[in-house]
Amino acid sequence: MSYKDKYIARDNAYGVDVRSRIVSRNRDNINSTITQSPSYYQVNVLNKTVPCDMLIIDNSDSKDLKNFAVPFDSEFSLGDTIHWKDNHWLAIHFDEMSEVYKRGILRKCFTTLKWLNSEGKVKETWFTYSGESTSNFGVDEGRFIVLDKDRRQIIIKNDKEISNDLDNDSRFIFDDRAWKVTSIDRLESNLMYLVLNADQINTATDNVELRIANYYGNIATHEINVLSGTSLTLSPNFPLQLQVEVRNRDQIVPSPTLSFSSKDESICTVNQNGLLTPISEGLTSIIVQFKDIQSVISVKVVQEQTYNYTVEIIDDSSNPFVIYRGKSKEFKAVFKDNGIAYEDNGLAYEDNGLFSLTTNLATITLQGDNRCVLQANSVGKVTLKVVGSHAETTKEITIKSIL
């Protein structure tokens, strides 16, 4: 290495001016001595894989507050939560000291907020009570606010996912009570301040045991429906395209991300579009995965040609399988053999369950050529059934008010 290269490398490591060199030298000193302090801890940070080197020092104002310091290049930031000495602590204050190290204040968390997002999935985050007033209420006594027993002011981490989930009508359950958000302050980076008022627990919708408000009727209930069947017999050279739908709370999930795998690819393979390719005689299983649920398809491969008849009810409208009261809609049936459409003159008719002639919720006014027209008479749900010479299926149709 030439003298010039050495000089450039030195500048890159220690800075090109006096201040940069002093800062770099002080950073190195702190990084090398931090682990020797009696206040040093290696703590786990929630949602981060790498532990954090941290100095944690008692705060004279409150036993629920701690001062902390971390190396300047630490990924720990405002709004992060650590697990330390059997408790969780939220970073509520953060600053950079002359680019040498970072310091701030941790406040002890008491429990978590739990809620359901728009998809019905349970979400959770730790919170702490606020010691400063961002709204005009309470009595200021030093740095702390004495609140009415039916009101709480809390601090949580502010990120895009949490922020999108919460609004002024969000409800939570903690401290054996229900609480409703009345004010949200998102102005501070990485932190969100919530003002909560006491609310009534509704046992019809709130799950007190899980501490989740508005739980019943909103929790995700994903299910995988394999329309082409869960027990298949195939022959080599006759591939089959799987027909799969996913429902959540009885509503079809649009464009679900599915994964497919075969237990034994020497018998049958499957690609990520769900196309089965039989290879050799034998019995295997195909796994269809969506998030944390799966469906298992039994596949038997034999030498002779086999037939796998299926039928699917199709609604080509922009609002599928929904009819407004007083309106009509056309549905069609597509019959398939091994995933390939073929002609089959089916008969569409009302099921004797939710949809029947006696209730008059809907009426089939016209049918033929594997098509039918449904007239919606009253609000509710009906089941449309189609039967062909080799296959049959049903589809639930929702009738809504036009208002």
Question: Explain this structure to me?
Answer:
Strand 2 (52-58) and strand 3 form a beta hairpin. Helix content is 8%, strand content 48%. With 403 residues, it is mostly beta strands. The termini are far apart.
List the helices and strands and how they pair.
Layout: H1 3-14, H2 18-33, E1 40-45, E2 52-58, E3 65-71, E4 81-84, E5 87-97, E6 101-108, E7 111-116, E8 122-129, E9 139-141, E10 144-146, E11 151-157, H3 160-165, E12 171-174, E13 177-185, E14 191-199, E15 223-226, E16 231-234, E17 240-241, E18 244-248, E19 251-252, E20 259-262, E21 268-270, E22 275-278, E23 282-290, E24 293-301, E25 309-314, E26 322-324, E27 328-337, E28 340-342, E29 347-350, E30 362-368, E31 371-376, E32 380-387, E33 392-400
Give a nutshell description of this structure.
It is built from 3 helices and 33 strands.
Give descriptors for this structure:
single chain, 8% helix, mainly beta, 403 residues, six-stranded antiparallel barrel, six-stranded antiparallel β-sheet, 3 helices
